[in-house]
């Protein structure tokens, strides 16, 4: 890559995406022209001179008062300009000084209009016995030059200024069709496979690309053909972009990076032109890698839009298809693309010969999460008591970006506390903050709402301990965190990719626990169970329509279910079953929810004393770990209570215009895995 960077042809070529710089030279010339014009007007008006300009009436009064001086050394002069009817009288007059009262001689200048008062002033001078000299002056040429030279200079400078701007605009217009791909050099931000963890299978799949870029003849001797394109598919934050950069870092070749949205511009045909230019740059820098991030911005299905078919994005996609089908892999140019929406890509883009291989970059398992945590822990100071394997087991479903955020949040928490290294307590708090949000202890809740929240969360917690097919309880809190007023958190013992029917049925019962506890204790319910109801309905409907877990509806999928909605494809799609079937589905969903509600009610009534004990402990300590809940379930009381949180002194109440008021509905609960549901509207 170092040799490629020294290529003079590529160094002389300006980058396609550079915007025109500000023309400082033109601005300086423009300012100079304005200064010259201002100076000319000052010189013309004589404002810089000490000569006082007086009117003709004041001049006549000075003659009457005998203050006008007319001597051989300082004579009066009447300057007559040829071709003009104006005359100017120059000379000196006496005036007392304002400081010491002595008379001083002050130069003056009096312009007059000869046809109107020229004779009157001459008669006054003759009557007063003052002699004067008539001085003809011919300065038409100098006056004209003085008048028009600044304007001409201004126009010349303006011409050069706009000329340079037009040239720069022309260059910018020519660059519209240039590719905006940025080349990352070897020395800057180099990433290798050592920096990418948790995606071992994906690294194995792309490792042969590195071998090909290092030694292309190894594959060519056997007649093998390296894939023209590799499409990386996976959820956001799993490391697709970093893996592509690691390929370039390992192969030690130029790496061009561009986003899918960089192709499309407001001008027609620009996207296709940029695609052509991108492949031309790649061929000149071969062997190299071209990485297109978020390729779904230009690679969507053709003809599935809501507008017309002649679309600028479709033209860009057509050109991309042609270029990928036309260039040869023997050139050493490999296209790598990344997306988290492979379902919306055009089938022609995914066929063999274009993107030959799809690499799934999935969420890391427990071992992968530990490796990712180790990579990010190199940049921070970790205490010796921190066990990253424990943190990895407690973060199921976290992506690589979320794990990096956990390490960063833990470092910030430790710095805020003034610690020298990150301890396990900061890691636990950072994990909870990233997944469930930050604690909102400043949120003022009434005692009534706190009590309702405590019983609501106690209903969830006790059912998690009583039922057989549930995940271990992690923590219960009535401290507002994120969008919820209270949270019941549970963490699976291991990574799970399938869920059994009994586990789903028990999960429905746990979800109903909050509403049932409110009904048993208070005889009334609140709107805080909105998230529970939505979560239970979604689980029950998937059990009936997607997973075939209803005996009445059978092993049939009702409707087409995709993880993401693509409006251009799904808008005209029918649901695929009759109205009578829809009614049966609704009845089955209702039956699953009702059965879970009845079962939850039966268990909570039977263990009412434990429900009371857990709620009272929550009101006293606000947060209980799973071990505390199990202690109450076993002994009926909390024998090893947690440390109480010392709240800061409350602020004085602010005056309000409306007494009382309505409070927001109570707490929201957590979907599977402990995710907080949205706050009630």
UniProtKB/TrEMBL annotation:
<keyword id="KW-0131">Cell cycle</keyword>
<keyword id="KW-0812">Transmembrane</keyword>
<feature type="domain" description="AAA+ ATPase">
    <location>
        <begin position="226"/>
        <end position="365"/>
    </location>
</feature>
<keyword id="KW-0067">ATP-binding</keyword>
<dbReference type="GO" id="GO:0016887">
    <property type="term" value="F:ATP hydrolysis activity"/>
</dbReference>
<feature type="active site">
    <location>
        <position position="457"/>
    </location>
</feature>
<comment type="subunit">
    <text>Homohexamer.</text>
</comment>
<dbReference type="InterPro" id="IPR003593">
    <property type="entry name" value="AAA+_ATPase"/>
</dbReference>
<dbReference type="GO" id="GO:0051301">
    <property type="term" value="P:cell division"/>
</dbReference>
<keyword id="KW-0378">Hydrolase</keyword>
<feature type="binding site">
    <location>
        <position position="460"/>
    </location>
    <ligand>
        <name>Zn(2+)</name>
    </ligand>
</feature>
<dbReference type="InterPro" id="IPR011546">
    <property type="entry name" value="Pept_M41_FtsH_extracell"/>
</dbReference>
<keyword id="KW-0132">Cell division</keyword>
<dbReference type="GO" id="GO:0006508">
    <property type="term" value="P:proteolysis"/>
</dbReference>
<feature type="binding site">
    <location>
        <position position="532"/>
    </location>
    <ligand>
        <name>Zn(2+)</name>
    </ligand>
</feature>
<feature type="binding site">
    <location>
        <begin position="234"/>
        <end position="241"/>
    </location>
    <ligand>
        <name>ATP</name>
    </ligand>
</feature>
<dbReference type="GO" id="GO:0005524">
    <property type="term" value="F:ATP binding"/>
</dbReference>
<protein>
    <recommendedName>
        <fullName>ATP-dependent zinc metalloprotease FtsH</fullName>
        <ecNumber>3.4.24.-</ecNumber>
    </recommendedName>
</protein>
<dbReference type="InterPro" id="IPR000642">
    <property type="entry name" value="Peptidase_M41"/>
</dbReference>
<keyword id="KW-0645">Protease</keyword>
<dbReference type="GO" id="GO:0008270">
    <property type="term" value="F:zinc ion binding"/>
</dbReference>
<keyword id="KW-0862">Zinc</keyword>
<dbReference type="GO" id="GO:0005886">
    <property type="term" value="C:plasma membrane"/>
</dbReference>
<keyword id="KW-1003">Cell membrane</keyword>
<feature type="compositionally biased region" description="Basic and acidic residues">
    <location>
        <begin position="1"/>
        <end position="13"/>
    </location>
</feature>
<dbReference type="InterPro" id="IPR003959">
    <property type="entry name" value="ATPase_AAA_core"/>
</dbReference>
<feature type="compositionally biased region" description="Pro residues">
    <location>
        <begin position="647"/>
        <end position="656"/>
    </location>
</feature>
<comment type="similarity">
    <text>In the central section; belongs to the AAA ATPase family.</text>
</comment>
<keyword id="KW-1133">Transmembrane helix</keyword>
<keyword id="KW-0482">Metalloprotease</keyword>
<dbReference type="GO" id="GO:0030163">
    <property type="term" value="P:protein catabolic process"/>
</dbReference>
<dbReference type="InterPro" id="IPR003960">
    <property type="entry name" value="ATPase_AAA_CS"/>
</dbReference>
<dbReference type="InterPro" id="IPR005936">
    <property type="entry name" value="FtsH"/>
</dbReference>
<dbReference type="Pfam" id="PF06480">
    <property type="entry name" value="FtsH_ext"/>
</dbReference>
<keyword id="KW-0547">Nucleotide-binding</keyword>
<feature type="binding site">
    <location>
        <position position="456"/>
    </location>
    <ligand>
        <name>Zn(2+)</name>
    </ligand>
</feature>
<feature type="region of interest" description="Disordered">
    <location>
        <begin position="1"/>
        <end position="20"/>
    </location>
</feature>
<keyword id="KW-0479">Metal-binding</keyword>
<dbReference type="Pfam" id="PF00004">
    <property type="entry name" value="AAA"/>
</dbReference>
<dbReference type="InterPro" id="IPR027417">
    <property type="entry name" value="P-loop_NTPase"/>
</dbReference>
<comment type="similarity">
    <text>In the C-terminal section; belongs to the peptidase M41 family.</text>
</comment>
<dbReference type="Pfam" id="PF01434">
    <property type="entry name" value="Peptidase_M41"/>
</dbReference>
